[in-house]
Amino acid sequence: MKKIKVNTIIALLITVFCFTYHLKAQNNTNTNERLSPKEQSIISIAALTAKGDLPRLKERLNIGLEAGITVNEIKEVLVHLYAYCGFPRSIRGLQTFMEVLDERKAKGINDKIGNDVSPVHEKGSKYDRGKKILGGLTQTPQPDTLTSYSAFAPVIDTFLKEHLFADIFERNVLTYSERELVTVSVLSTIGGVEPMLRSHLNICLNVGLTPEQLLQFVNIIKSTVGEHEATVAGTVLDEMLKNRE
C-alpha cells in the first residue's frame, strides 16, 4: 500500500514538473517572439512622426526614453524616416524631440546619450556599396541592367543606391531590423505605397524579425495610427507571408 502511494506521489510530481517545464518553455517562446519595448517605441515614434501627430509623438518620445532608448538612437530614427516621408516630417520630429529633452532636463532628468555614428571606412563607390547592401537585405542579386522606374528615371536608382542604402543604411546606431521597423511604420502610415510596404515587410523577415512580431507591429499601427492603416498593413503582410510559403 505504501509502495503504491509512493509511486502515485512520484508520478504526480513528474506530471507537475513536465507541465511547469512546458509552460515555462511556452512563455519563453512567446517572449522571444514579441517585440521588445524598445522596438515597440521605435514603431510608435516613426508612425506618429510620419503622421505629423506631434502632441502624441511627445508622449511616445517620453515613453521611448523611459524604455531605455538612447537620445542618439531616437535621433537616428527621426533622421532615417526622412527618406520615406520627407524632410518636413523628419525636421518637425527632431524639433519635437528637442522640446521633450529640454522639458526632461528642466525636471532634472538626464537621459542616456548613447553611441555616436561611427565613421564609414568602406572602400569602393557608394553606388556599388548600396547595391550590395540592397542585395543582402532582399536576399536577391541586384541586376546590372536597369528596369521599370529605374530605367525610366536612372537618377532615382542612383539616389536610392548611393544615399538610402549606402549613406543611411551603413550608419551603425540602429540595426538593420530596427531600420526596417522604422521603414514599415512610415510606409503603413502614409498609405498608397503597398508594393514598397510588401517589399520591406519581406526584408523584415530576412533581417530576423518573425511573423509573430510583424503581426504585433500591425496591432501597434492600429493603436497608434488607426484601424484603416492597420487593416491595409495586415492584408499586405498576410499576402506576403502566403507567397513565402
TrEMBL record:
Coiled coil: none annotated. Residues 30-93, 159-229 form the Carboxymuconolactone decarboxylase-like domain. Pfam families: CMD. GO terms for molecular function: peroxiredoxin activity. InterPro entries: 4CMD/NDH-1_regulator, AhpD-like, CMD-like. This is Carboxymuconolactone decarboxylase. It comes from Chitinophaga eiseniae. The lineage of its organism: Bacteria, Pseudomonadati, Bacteroidota, Chitinophagia, Chitinophagales.
